[in-house]
Amino acid sequence: MSEALNRTETMALGIVLERRKGTSAWADWAWRPVSVIPGAPPVDGSWRLLREGEGWAHFHAATLPLELFRSDTEGYKLNLSQEPPRLWVVLRPDETGEPGGVVPFVVTASAHECEAYQVSGVEMVETVPMPPEVTALVRDFTEQHHVDVPFVKRERKRHFPKQG
Question: Domain spans of the chain?
Answer without folding.
Answer: 3-145
